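writing this on my phone so excuse typos. first protein, seq and then structure
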Amino acid sequence: MVKVHLKTLSDDDRPVFLTGSFCDWQTELPAFRMTNLGAGGYEFTFPELVRPPFSYKYTKGDWSSVELDASGWDTPNREWIGRVATRSDTVPHFMTGGKAFDPWMSPGLKIWPEMTMKPLRRKRRVSILLPAGYGNTDERYPVLYFQDGQNIYGGGSVYGDWALDRKMAIRAQQGRRPFIGVVIDHGAERRRAEFNPYARHREGVKYLQWLTTELKPEIDRHFRTLPDRRNTGLCGSSLGGLISLYGVAHFPDIFGMGLIFSPSLWVSQQVYTDAATIRSGLGTKIYLYVGGKESAGTAAAVRKMNRVLREAGAAVALSEKPAATHSEAAWSAELPFALSYLLDESTV
């Protein structure tokens, strides 16, 4: 017999069913209803007569509640090939009533097109994504600062994007904790310099000086934020992950969260020494992620960073995806799980 384990972030009162080529794609057969283990976990053991290969999907009872990807888009059929006896799947989201999310759940958007960066003597576009219903409440919100803004929302660049706007709408649909996303465009040809705090001209240090002494105070002044460290985080990938990790380590009184995807740890061995200085007892939460098909040594470096951060006293979640590449698509797929860890889960 073959068995499947499912983990989903879209957990509600609706039961989860398996459908596929083994049942002519019928969607609500009691024989293929999964067992609810709680906390978004499900499992199912197939009848003896059902053996791979077969195609399958997850639904919550019909095709208007079928599984979706992390951005709320349709997914291809899953394929179970070979003699693997047990599989583990994840479903970031399920459709509700034929929709990924209610359009009213979409975040609001404010854009500051040319914010002055005094330490760097240049300007930068900053986008602020506000949670659904922001204007109808007095609630204050945690804030996450995202690097590489061109690749974060609204379709992104030629490299794709993280679809943060859709992720925020889906989180609102799921009833998860809302937050403000501050999305900072990178400096194009100055990106490598601005995100490297170890380079000779120290533009990375000046970038963080701007973010902490100019941008954050302005965000806290104009929007209803929770300005303390436990509710403030830095987010980034590749070089953006490097500068975010550096910021969490060097500004522990400001940043208590770090979303660090595929960081460019090759830039300097000093990054490990800096990470070791994170003070224990502060409750710093860090989500580390790496793909198995990134450049040689990347996964080993991230595992080493995981050990260093844990030894320093940080609460770290490490996620490795063996088939994932160094790409916006991979980081977009991982984003919901990182947000869930940083904003929804208690480490106390």
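second protein below, same order as before
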Amino acid sequence: MTIAALARTEIRNLQAYQAATVADYNVKMHANEAPAATGTGETNGLNRYPAPRPAALTSLMADYYGVAEGNVLVTRGSSEGIDLLMRSFCSAGRDNVLLTPPAFEMYKVYASIQGIRAISVPLLAERDFAVNTDLLLGSCDANTKLIFLCSPNNPVGTVIPRAEIVRILETRTAKSVVVIDEAYVEYSDTESLASLVTQYENLVVLRTLSKALALAGARCGAVIASTEILALLESVLAPYAMASPVITSAERALTGMQLREALESVNTITAERERLRVALGNCATIERVWPSQANFLFARFHDLAKVKRCLADAGITIRIYADNSELHNCARITISSATDNDRLLRALRSLD
């Protein structure tokens, strides 16, 4: 059985929309576009649709991720990849997805939107939020279509050992698609699993340009997977999904000086992360700071409500998990500039 057999019958049989091709003609009268941009009357390109799928950007992303172009589907942030997977593989009221909270909250949101049951196998807080692999595998059933693993984890910052992921992939071969969310992998000392998509047909890797490449406002990411999975997702993805300015910005970010600067910034952030982790560990108001391999730190406070008021007075905001009983008094702190990080430390030390 091929991995496509796990997808919804409706998606496997879907006749995908055929977008008007962008032909290299001087007079374009095929796509019902405006002949010129409004306002100045000059054509600046935005009066025309972008390519249905951005080939040059796909090539650049494939080079950056170290995979073949045919294994990359460009999406509007990695969040769109999550949505495409849910819609393509899971039938409402029948199938389920497996999550390992605490994790990126949009997994559960997209499952709820699609009417998909989410099975939760919590990370082991007492073991630095490690995955309980035995329980995870034992919790899967015949209708578990997707398994989402966030590594480095958001919001905790820990990584899942490669051997554990491979064990899950091999155990769930032809049974579940295993989705590895690597939004923060550039900040870690672990290697991406993207190169394994040709070895494991049930592996999907999600990547984004929002974090390390500093393009959160552009909303550009990628699904890296087998050509068979990507063909299914592409049939669901809207035509002309990527706006022309986004394509241009992303292409610039993946070339030349801008790419080098982004990777240098990653080194700066990781150095600041370790400096801030040590300093936070010496603050009396903090009970614990977990090691992180992302661009943030996860900490437990003695009195988070008091800290929140203090930081608000200082004009500083952090991500507080007040509605999650398992993360009581915990918060995620994004690593910012050295100046911002020092400002945070001064505010927290005022409570000592």
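The first strand starts at residue 72 and ends at 75. thats all i got for now
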